[in-house]
Each structure stands twice: as C-alpha cells, then as structure tokens.
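Model it.
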Amino acid sequence: MIRIGQGVDAHRLVPDRDLILGGVHVDFSQGLAAHSDGDVLLHAISDALLGAAGAGDIGRHFPDTDAAYAGIDSRILLRQVAGCLSERRWRVINVDATVIAQRPRLQPYLDAMTANIAADLEVGAERVNVKATTMEWMGFTGRGEGIAATAVALLEGL
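Modeled.
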C-alpha cells in the first residue's frame, strides 16, 4: 500500500531571530516567529509525512502550548515523526518540498537542507527534493513579511 500526504506551513519574519530552514542556518537579518525554531520547511515536511501515515499533524504531536517544545530544533521533531512512521510500519519513498520566499536567496543552502532531511528520515538524498521559489513580489512572502513552505510525501506500507 502507498499513501500520499501534503503539508503547508508559514511564519512571519521578525528581527532578532535566526533564520533556520531545513535545519540550516541561513544568513539573513530576520528569522521566523514561532514557538519552536520556526523551520517552515521541516514543519511542512512533517505534516506531509504525518498526513500520509494518517497520523494527524505536528500541532497534535507537538502542541505550541507545551513548554517542552519552546525553541526546539525542528530536526528533533522531524526525527520523532520518522519514528512515528516506523512504529506505524511506513517507509518514506520520497519527499518533494518547496520553500516560498522573496528573499533571502536560498539556492546556496538547498543541498545542505536536502542532506539534513535525508539524514533525519534515514533515506538516501535521492529520495528528497528541496527547491525554492519566489512569489514575484506578490502576497505576504513577496512583500518579505514571511516565508512559507509546501511539501508532499509518498509512503509505502511495510
């Protein structure tokens, strides 16, 4: 059996925070406001994986009302999602994700993001695709107010 899941996340850009995407510190003057580290890419991927497994979403597993997740590294959360998949007897076939940001330019960071995600999911990097796009100055991402990410994941039952 195979199942597909999709995930979306977005956060506001704010001063005095590190910008972390795909577990990579991105050189930028602002970061993402969130209870955790605000990594919209890993949040969207986590939601896609959980959705494909029929296991809810990251808000259910890691609520922002729980102080244990305050400032947490989203790679830790992604590894916990991978553990949830394993317990439910699912294997990742592939993940495809897009970060939506007018700036900063993300191309130099994509390989490192891909490597982090593949390592956390314990799959080969060829099973993970990360890309970036802009919104051509339209909407909240185009105006530089925030960053969003979308992801799809394909799982195979074991």
